[in-house]
Amino acid sequence: MFRPIVSLTAAAALSLAALGMSNATGDMVGKDMPDARPVNIGGVAAESFDDFIGEAVLVEFFAYW
Amino acid sequence: MPHLNELQAQFGGKGLTILGVTSESKKDTEPWIEEKGVTYPWGYDEGGEMSKGFGVSGIPAAFLIDAGGRIVWQGHPASLREGTIEDALKDSYKALTRDWPKSAKAVGKALTKGDLGDALAKAEALAVDDEFGKELVGRVKGRIRLKVTSVESAFAEGDVLVAYESGKAIQKSLKGLPEQERIDSIIKQISKDKDLKERMKQLEKLRKIVSVEMDKKKQCDEVAAKLEKFLKGNEGTYVGDRIEAKLKAIRKVRGKLSH
Questions:
Q1: How many angstroms away from the CA of A12 is the closest CA of chain B?
Q2: What single-letter DSSP state applies at residue A32?
Q3: pLDDT (average), residues B156-179
Q4: CB-CB contact of B31 with B42 (8 Å)
Q5: Are B120 and B177 spatial neighbours (Cβ–Cβ below 8 Å)?
Q6: What is the reported pLDDT for B34?
Q7: Mean pLDDT computed over B135-148
Q8: B92-96: long-range contacts at Cβ-Cβ below 8 A with a sequence spacing of 24 or more?
């Protein structure tokens, strides 16, 4: 579990979170999201990712197992 | 993902979309979704293109993307602070309109305020002689359709709880649009009908029973026992079918747990 240390600056804490716990190979913060989009969106009647226009999106990569 | 369900409840109506993305098949994923009682949308990353693009090396991995499509945070979903989300939402207007022409900014303002009727009117005015305006009309219409259809399909399916809750949440944003009447009428039908109100209570009870961790066989068994008890007397009804679907999903997931 990622535990913030008070003496760390916000930026250092963020990069710790990004590098130590993010399960991603690189730092994507500040970049535009890649072009690929999810298909067959469930849970809402969205026809495509574009329907979420105007909102911030928290994308979580998950698996059922 | 009880944590993301909580975020959905807290920020879902306030400008944040939570989207689960998986490279696994629909067949394997949907029972899991059902069993976990996921309340936020999910989608499929066919061929793993999306996860490759994000550089995902393991799961779970989360990315917060601002309204303008820029990644503002990445990390383990459990380490995401509410303050980070709040900061991203505060700047939604600026982010969304970052690369937009000045003439379109008023559409972005209305959109991020959640005023879809106003956003559409402004986009349509812009579309008269502007290509980007035309594109915006399409996108705002998509957003309206998404919101309205989510309520209508929940209602048509019989899920009066979701229909009522999400209907209430979007009522205001549809001001001035013909769709508003459709949503008003659904809310009115539910609140006037004794049977539908009773069903809403039952669905709330179902939601409460299943909104617990089910990572261990014992936890699954406890929930299943409660559901079986709840099912008695509800067989053959909409709520009964929902309970049975939930039971089936829990049994399937239980079979895959090691302890």
A1: 13
A2: B
A3: 91
A4: no
A5: yes
A6: 86
A7: 92
A8: B92/A54, B92/A55, B92/A56, B92/B15, B92/B66, B92/B67, B93/B67, B94/B68, B95/A56, B95/B66, B95/B67, B95/B68, B95/B70, B96/A53, B96/A54, B96/B66, B96/B67, B96/B68
For B40, B100, B127, B136, the CA distances from B132, given in Å and listed in that order, are 30, 9, 7, 6
Whether A2 sits inside 8 A of B79 (CB atoms) is yes
CA–CA separation, B252 vs B247, rounded Å?
9
Tokens found for residue B112: 């991020």
Task: Tell me the pLDDT of chain B averaged across its residues.
Answer: 92
Question: Which has the closest alpha carbon to A43: B249, B131, B33, B211?
Answer: B33
- Chain B, nearest residue to A60 by Cα: B62
- Interface contact B89, partner A, CB < 8 A: yes
Beta bridge partners of B182: none
| DSSP three-state, residue B109 | helix
Query: Is residue A33 within 8 Å of residue B62, measured between CB atoms?
Result: no
What residue type is B245 in one-letter code?
A: A
Asked if the C-beta of B139 comes within 8 angstroms of chain A's C-beta atoms, the answer is yes
Of B162 and A3, which is predicted with more confidence? B162
- How high is the pLDDT of residue A21? 54
Min Cα separation B31/chain A (Å): 9
Residue B219: is its pLDDT beyond 50? yes
Residue B101 DSSP class: -
Per-residue pLDDT, averaged over B237-248, amounts to 94
Cβ of A52 under 8 Å from any chain B Cβ? Answer: yes
Q: Does residue A15 carry a pLDDT above 50? A: no
Residues counted in chain A: 65
Res. B10 pLDDT band, cuts 50 70 90:
confident
Q: Which two tokens stand for residue B79?
A: 């380490």
